[in-house]
Amino acid sequence: MRVGVLTGGGDCPGLNAVIRAVVRKGVEVYDFDFVGFRDGWRGPLENVTCPLGVAEVRGILPRGGTVLGSSRTNPFKVEGGVERIKQNLADNHVDALVAIGGEDTLGVATKLSDLGVNVVGVPKTIDNDLSGTDFTFGFDTAVNIAMEAIDRLHTTAESHHRVLVVEVMGRHAGWIALHAGMAGGANIVLIPEKPFDIDKVCAYVEERFKKSYAPIVVVSEGAVPVDGGDMTLQSGETDAFGHVRLGGIGDRLASEIEQRTGKEARAVVLGHVQRGGTPTAFDRWLATRFGLHAITAVAEKDFGTMVALRGKDIVRVPLIEGTGELKVVSPEEYAEAEVFFG
Amino acid sequence: MRVGVLTGGGDCPGLNAVIRAVVRKGVEVYDFDFVGFRDGWRGPLENVTCPLGVAEVRGILPRGGTVLGSSRTNPFKVEGGVERIKQNLADNHVDALVAIGGEDTLGVATKLSDLGVNVVGVPKTIDNDLSGTDFTFGFDTAVNIAMEAIDRLHTTAESHHRVLVVEVMGRHAGWIALHAGMAGGANIVLIPEKPFDIDKVCAYVEERFKKSYAPIVVVSEGAVPVDGGDMTLQSGETDAFGHVRLGGIGDRLASEIEQRTGKEARAVVLGHVQRGGTPTAFDRWLATRFGLHAITAVAEKDFGTMVALRGKDIVRVPLIEGTGELKVVSPEEYAEAEVFFG
Amino acid sequence: MRVGVLTGGGDCPGLNAVIRAVVRKGVEVYDFDFVGFRDGWRGPLENVTCPLGVAEVRGILPRGGTVLGSSRTNPFKVEGGVERIKQNLADNHVDALVAIGGEDTLGVATKLSDLGVNVVGVPKTIDNDLSGTDFTFGFDTAVNIAMEAIDRLHTTAESHHRVLVVEVMGRHAGWIALHAGMAGGANIVLIPEKPFDIDKVCAYVEERFKKSYAPIVVVSEGAVPVDGGDMTLQSGETDAFGHVRLGGIGDRLASEIEQRTGKEARAVVLGHVQRGGTPTAFDRWLATRFGLHAITAVAEKDFGTMVALRGKDIVRVPLIEGTGELKVVSPEEYAEAEVFFG
Amino acid sequence: MRVGVLTGGGDCPGLNAVIRAVVRKGVEVYDFDFVGFRDGWRGPLENVTCPLGVAEVRGILPRGGTVLGSSRTNPFKVEGGVERIKQNLADNHVDALVAIGGEDTLGVATKLSDLGVNVVGVPKTIDNDLSGTDFTFGFDTAVNIAMEAIDRLHTTAESHHRVLVVEVMGRHAGWIALHAGMAGGANIVLIPEKPFDIDKVCAYVEERFKKSYAPIVVVSEGAVPVDGGDMTLQSGETDAFGHVRLGGIGDRLASEIEQRTGKEARAVVLGHVQRGGTPTAFDRWLATRFGLHAITAVAEKDFGTMVALRGKDIVRVPLIEGTGELKVVSPEEYAEAEVFFG
């Protein structure tokens, strides 16, 4: 059998570990051969391929990024896109595809599967917000990076009686903020699922200082104030200089806290540091297992499925499950650790 | 309610995170007060206590070790031990105990529970070999430390055409070796559950060199050769100098491979480095949740239980479940990644 | 002899290592005793002291921050400040002071020394911009943290064809940017000493993309555009919302590059992460040696001096040398590595 | 000009950084072209070459090992070796060589230089024991790895009242042990330059335990007991099993301390972990500067020299200086930190 592999969407530590596992087991156990498609769905759409064998995956396990490149190309938004993909797969004698990606990439995979393309999906999101799987790889790495930053900030917060605001990733789901906040011993954790009240945040900041503690605030990039909160946190507005307003929620929150409480506040914006570089052991282990099981699904011609973690087991679920509704932090999950968060 | 807390057995990153969570939630949500017992069961046996409140747990989340100290004292091996414990608990007005420990510590907890002591257990083992829970805290930290060592060894193995043997923890179970070997891209993984054949190990070493790759061998400290293997790997024997024979399985394996294959082989023995120091995010998160749920079990007077991880949920199981048979690597679990291991 | 110790100014990994070395050698070799003054010059000014002995410095070597606290209090700006300090030193029977701090703290030390107070200084600045010493502790830690961030960003820059801007510390001197940029393989390094031309920056960004490389830009927080550059990078202005303009040079540069080149650009602002947490080996070694030599200077009554690193030697220089002109990156030092920087 | 580059001797983080700097500046500033010689002096001896240009050095800055491979081949021990090297250099139109290596590699370079080969040397030793330069790259990385291990061991030593022995690299010089011991807060540091008295070591161990501290002992692999010390620490002897005696000084010391003091003692042997993997910022900075200055020496035809660090400056010294006597820890340098070491 000849198998195509592609990676789509945002960077995520562990992508290379998946690719390596797919190829190593595919070649050594199933005697498959492989073709790499470059830059997500752009590869099969525009027939951009690269060699992919045991030699190409050598040494890539610990590396961040993806040796196949990535993009957000959506063939369904391209005239005749599906037909071109089918033709290119046929021209390359590709019998099946392993598509590694998030909501968008797997959404395309789902539709192509319905249209007769043999696809197995591998779920990927650094934000950990894909349903169908307990965890996704990359998430543990992001949480550790954020936690290490928080660890370092504690001493500074204390020595200088400053508020430190750490902005972490998470547009729609607060998983990174919640886990890093718990692991780092943050004092306030603000997530997209639970709009925050700036008055309460500032009241808690002041309460902490009275006990002579300096607070650390962890905020998801997608966190928002409650309706009617008198904060000017809107993004994307044009400022007095004619530029789009700079600074994300982290900067704005620090500025707002400083103005309201009179306490110095500083922001740290980790940004893409959270999604690059070498994966943690958990992420390499999970990504490797995802890859091993995905290629077995191909061997068993169990197409239209994706691999998923359930407890300690890797299972297969219909592709549609991974691209259904977003997995967000439930009120119960947030409440579990609330004793630590103002 | 007044609650005693103790930690027993070997060091494990995350112990302080459990203690902190137990105390913070106990004080702030349930209005309990606490007494710390020093050095495992020695504390309640010999009435060695220390203050334990919100002040005492401040800043301990990222720290290795345990602020309560530890020991392997077993009160059932001490004349009148149980009575003394009961008396000391009564004298300290302790209504319930949170006992954090492994097989031995929880074994004592189980028996005391049967004898009427109010105990809730928190499972702890760096080797991840306690049944009843999917994972234990400390394990992820150990695996990451071992993986980082393997990462560093890859370049040296390649540049010098050397065999590198990494001895990791795991007396009875090969979890650390298996996970670190998968995450680090090791070429041979030897675990206690599967006696190894030194001839096959050496044959694979030579095969690797023919392909111009230098192999990395990960070996659990408890790994053993198959019966009749002509290796002299027995421990504890007295050598020609009248000393107990030095060097564990790592050193011996390196020496044996060197002699048999003529390839230079070097051992790295990580030892206690794996069980000290700051915990990973996963371990802090798991340990914190264990602590939060343990004190709730106390509040709900659900004694004789221990907390456990099942999938993403923290559940309660009877104490006896944690101290039953050891959780070892099954043949299927080992086979899953075997494509990578010679 | 009775010796007072204080730490002033911004946080810096290694402060605790200095304190520990001063106290350990002072007690064990010279049989001195010690008093800690809290929060920089506020301590002797307002007579806020704490016990300081071998017990107090135990275990602090690897910790960030300072166990003595810090502040920017300047007794020369307080009515009768100098007299109060002299009186409080006398009341505490303090024969000599070890003052650990940067330009401001040592500036005060210099003046007090001229007024007859027995002071030995230890230079401290994370920015490495104090003259008189080859390096200061804390700087190596900051550079490593920034380098690790850059390492992680490389894969993301490449996979997504994005410009990544990393803002690092350095208000007046570009040492952190220069060293981290060299160590991390950055493509553009902008420092305060050399105003940048935004047109040239953007031209280089575009040139890199033509060669299909995604650039990483490291920028000191104090970097500024050349006069007449049509960038709106001024800080501290009030924007349309009545707030002080948010976002530092990192955010603004990313925004400007994005608008001019049409390439996605993202900023990472490491901020206080660079000055908190555990020091590197170099910083612990340097800080420890500074402490050991400072207390010897006290024992030898060589007051009015500060310790400094020259080559591998710790020497003593007049206090005034450390607080003279700022040590900035010379054109030659910048040019040395310019082959790597667009 | 056409320049050959080779790396010889043991692995050392920073080798790739040197190669990259040599090539980048050589190509971009001097318009040189390059040829890589594989595996140290074996390359020019046996004419094993590889392409070496800007493309080949891309992305290698953070990587351990050497892309050129290494060996300990000595052409002066091969019949007609020198003539073959000269012939191969001529055949490859090589005008000059950059030789990166330690005592042996630079020793060969020195002799070849005397015989008319155009060579510039770059000093390399993880042990930091080459004279002529203040520091060598790789050393800072090794010290940090050892320090991080010691950091992790502190909590375990304390919680379990155990002696922990850490064996670090250093056959002839104790630099790694001394620096890591200072940075990690070790209690005993044993180096090759100062034979140790096992009685005194054990007496100090017992003294520490009386104060309820658990000691950490750092020992260079080349440390030896004083003459007449009744320890059986000889290496390389054949034991009762006919095998070369296993276990280095670390294992033996732990065993000896355990037997004599009755306190549990455990050894950690970091071995090659110290010389593999990504370099620290200091080592990347130093290695990069060495490379930049070495290629300038070539451009200026200043052959027979090697680059060296003196203070903050990179200077050139005659090759012979780097291969003269070993730079060992002087009694004064050891004594500087002795207050910390029992």
Automatic annotation (TrEMBL), chains A, B, C, D:
Coiled coil: none
Domain Phosphofructokinase span(s) in chain numbering: 2-297
Function recorded in the entry: Catalyzes the phosphorylation of D-fructose 6-phosphate, the first committing step of glycolysis. Uses inorganic phosphate (PPi) as phosphoryl donor instead of ATP like common ATP-dependent phosphofructokinases (ATP-PFKs), which renders the reaction reversible, and can thus function both in glycolysis and gluconeogenesis. Consistently, PPi-PFK can replace the enzymes of both the forward (ATP-PFK) and reverse (fructose-bisphosphatase (FBPase)) reactions.
Entry EC number(s): 2.7.1.90
Family of the protein in this entry: Belongs to the phosphofructokinase type A (PFKA) family. Mixed-substrate PFK group III subfamily.
Segment forming the signal sequence: none
Sites where the protein binds Mg(2+): 103
SUPFAM superfamilies (UniProt xref): Phosphofructokinase (SSF53784)
Residues annotated as binding diphosphate: 10
Annotated site, Important for catalytic activity and substrate specificity, chain positions: 104
HAMAP family linked: Phosphofructokinase_III
Subunit structure: Homodimer or homotetramer.
UniProt-annotated binding residues for substrate: 125-127, 162, 169-171, 221, 266, 272-275
Protein name in the entry: Pyrophosphate--fructose 6-phosphate 1-phosphotransferase
Site positions per UniProt: Important for catalytic activity: 124
Source organism per UniProt: Nocardioides marmoribigeumensis
Mechanisms controlling activity: Non-allosteric.
Catalytic residues as annotated in Swiss-Prot or TrEMBL: 127
Gene that this sequence comes from: pfp
InterPro entries in the record: ATP_PFK (IPR022953), ATP_PFK_prok-type (IPR012003), Phosphofructokinase_CS (IPR015912), Phosphofructokinase_dom (IPR000023), Phosphofructokinase_III (IPR012829), PKF_sf (IPR035966)
Top-level EC class: transferase
Pathway per the UniProt entry: Carbohydrate degradation; glycolysis; D-glyceraldehyde 3-phosphate and glycerone phosphate from D-glucose: step 3/4
Location in the cell: Cytoplasm
Keywords assigned: Cytoplasm, Glycolysis, Kinase, Magnesium, Metal-binding, Transferase
GO terms of molecular function: 6-phosphofructokinase activity
Primary location class: cytoplasm
Cofactor: Mg(2+)
Catalyzed reactions: beta-D-fructose 6-phosphate + diphosphate = beta-D-fructose 1,6-bisphosphate + phosphate + H(+)
